[in-house]
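Anyone else keep sequences and structure tokens together like this?

Example one:
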Amino acid sequence: SLEQTRPALPSDPFLQAEYLFHSGDFFAAKPLYHDYLSRNPSGKRSYLALFRLGRIDQSNRSYSTAVRFYQILLQKFPDSLLSNSARFNMAVCNYELAHYSIAESMFKLVLRSSPDKKRKWEIMYYLAQIDAKLMNYEKAFNSLKQLYEQTQDKEIGKRALKIAENLINEKVSTTQISSLIQKLGAGFPVDLLLLKRISSFRAKGNIS
């Protein structure tokens, strides 16, 4: 039966919340973290409870409330081991809320302080997307070029390629393509820009 196969939850409510969180049962974990914080507002595990609540709301796309939990964590526990992760998650939430200026400054703060190379590539990926959304295409393509050519993370490289292709196919005008080809030099993404220019010439009947 289910009762026999499911292990007994720990007696400690915080450990119960952790078990449920890591099992993916965020709905059941959330009130237990809230309960822990109401009983232990400055407890030694409060920073972790705040971080988990932020992650739960972020995963549910409740970005504004997620930001609030991360803010409380950083205000109350500025030297926590999770401070950089909280700042990164706050930046992602602000990006999703289209608060691009706030997101950019927070991403750059984490970029300067994080020793994690993969995290740095992730941040550059987001910064490139912010530049693209603000229509700063030259800056966006330079970041994507660096990501595509230098990252060892294949997934990040694929995502950089996809963003470049989407920008070229959906956002950048023919006039901008010619200008970008001159400014960006050789290699990626100039090869994609050249293909787009050739296809647009063909569409106009300028190339057979």
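And example two:
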Amino acid sequence: WEAHELKCAGTGFYEYHLGTFYLRADELQKSSATFLQGLAYDTDFRHALLLGQGKIYLFQQDYANAASLFKSVITEFPDWYVGNHFLGLSFLGLDKYEDAIKYFTAANDIYPNAESYRHLILAYEATGRDEAVIAALDSAYSLDPEILKDKTAVLAIVRAYANLGNFEVGKDFLALLWKEFPDIKNDQDYYDTGHYLRGKMVEAGLIEP
């Protein structure tokens, strides 16, 4: 990509993709400098270049600065769902779940997408809204059935069904993950979620401790 500099530099498109390559290679200084270089030009990629700068903060788990930058993105580009989604990610990292829900929902209002619904599952679980967790999964699945291969999202669904007393459906989702990923039986999160569901069944008097 660097070899195309003479032909493509100054387009914004070039700087965004080069900066993204640097970010993926963990070369954060080069990534930031490249995004800033692209922002110096008046191009149609300003929104993407600003987003790239925010992604660097996310990569560093500096969620407060990420949120500040993504706020500026949606102020300038309010109808771009991606900016709202990444602002939601920042608030999720800050454990500000109501704010995360607000911006993931805003992203879906602009452009329904499975990724924002996937993160709504996590935010709703963190706030104890089991029915909303399940509704978010249904919405994500309608857009991308591959969500059922997402371990984190599916385990959240199992816990939501366990909380609601729908144990058989919860067990079905655990079985679905096991079928898709046989080695998951050795995964600690999978084990803990199965143990959580079993504990809820004990509480309900359905099985012995």
